[in-house]
Amino acid sequence: MNTGFNPHISVDIVVFGFEDNEGLKVLLINRDKDEDKKSIKLKLPGSLIILSERLHDSAQRVLMELTGIKDIYLKQFAVFDNPERLKDGEDLQWLRNTSGTNIERVITIAYYSLVKLYHYSETELSKAYNARWYNLDSVPELIFDHNEILAEGLSTLQKEFLTEPLCFRLLPGKFTINQLQRISESILGFTLDNRNFRKRINKLEYIVPLNEHQTGVSHKPARYYIFDSKKFEIINRELTGFIV
Amino acid sequence: MNTGFNPHISVDIVVFGFEDNEGLKVLLINRDKDEDKKSIKLKLPGSLIILSERLHDSAQRVLMELTGIKDIYLKQFAVFDNPERLKDGEDLQWLRNTSGTNIERVITIAYYSLVKLYHYSETELSKAYNARWYNLDSVPELIFDHNEILAEGLSTLQKEFLTEPLCFRLLPGKFTINQLQRISESILGFTLDNRNFRKRINKLEYIVPLNEHQTGVSHKPARYYIFDSKKFEIINRELTGFIV
């Protein structure tokens, strides 16, 4: 069997960040460095892989090159392989021009990533890299199938958030229960009952109260908590599921 | 950026089957149709994809061609991309010969699949397709990184088994609690306490007792149960996780 032409391989990364009063955000980059273009074309950070490069390394390289972000948590979540995914004429032409290759088909391996947003200032990202944080509910039309990749990245995060301690990657080391609730709500996309949430959290041995409170706030200072990952691992080693 | 040479893309499928008294099995095929070869080289069912083919379609096609199995549940679980994964000289030569292409690198998209083993008779599989069921604890060395793909497929199944009703794909429509326990144990790789298991199952509304018992058995006939997927969906819509 001769398979003929091989598809190109790329990686695309959905980078989620969280800001207390603004909820969950996603990092998008401007496709064209040329700011003079009339219409802005936005995309997820991503790139074709280089010969011999491993996918995970490629994703780290791309993030470093396109956003300056390095050494972050990356989770592979899906492969987007529709042969028609590049069909938009103008976007495909752009890809052919920038890659210098007569690309026909690209199969992309999608990752999602979680970063503490306050580590990456808007100004720096935008000045150096043409990158910007967008609220999830104000993401415009992206190139190719990037809206679909983002949507599937979010639904994977929502699902994995329920069983894995992912939200602590978006929070500061010390956080209040209020912050934990806000991040849970941002990820899930709906509000939770305050009292029940507080009750539930207080039962979790791996969310540990500190003898330390907020300072310089106008309301009653809230207590700080930390996430004890070692305790979490020990408790989670006792498997629990819907049958066993 | 010129990415130069594109890797080939393949799919490989870990097909799990279950037999009551023998536990979980995996379907392996003989690499060489030529039975005269001294040493048998075993592999997972898999193939390079064809131009324009979607990965999922490719996996279904490959299973049909190599094992006669069609229209089954397939779950994509990982991408194996190590540039060194084909390094074995003799195996790589075989791949080049059978594909008619000077292959350098293959990135493979791995799926796992769950089938009711008794639908696929050993004789038929082996006569027509050179395929055979192997107990998980007696899988020999496979070509390339197929042992690693199998191991990761199994650990994904073990994890997903805890939250998704996957085991019912391996069981007959009507099953006994004993069968359900045996399949849970086979997947998890350890034994469960009989009494606790029975107690737990009896609490689950979506595992429904029938007014029907085994016949023609020498021991006390056990009651049959069915899995009610609609009830399961309704109950599982109420999200539960470690925080909310």
Q: Can you characterise this structure?
A:
- 2 copies of one chain form a homodimer.
- Chain A is an alpha+beta fold.
- Chain A has 2 domains: 8-161, Nucleoside Triphosphate Pyrophosphohydrolase; 171-237, Arc Repressor Mutant, subunit A (Orthogonal Bundle).
- Helices cover 32% and strands 24% of the residues of chain A.
- The first copy, chain A, contains 7 helices and 9 strands, in the order ββββαβαβαβαααββα.
- Chain A has helices at residues 55-67, 89-99, 122-129, 146-161, 177-188, 194-203, 229-237; strands spanning 8-19, 23-30, 42-43, 46-48, 74-80, 106-115, 131-135, 207-213, 223-227.
- In chain A, the strands form 2 sheets. In chain A, strands 1, 2, 3, 4, 5, 6 and 7 form a 7-stranded mixed sheet that branches. In chain A, strands 8-9 form a two-stranded antiparallel sheet.
- In chain A, β1 and β2 (23-30) form a beta hairpin.
- Chain A is globular.
SSE blueprint:
The structure is a homodimer of 244-residue chains.
Chain A: E1 8-19, E2 23-30, E3 42-43, E4 46-48, H1 55-67, E5 74-80, H2 89-99, E6 106-115, H3 122-129, E7 131-135, H4 146-161, H5 177-188, H6 194-203, E8 207-213, E9 223-227, H7 229-237
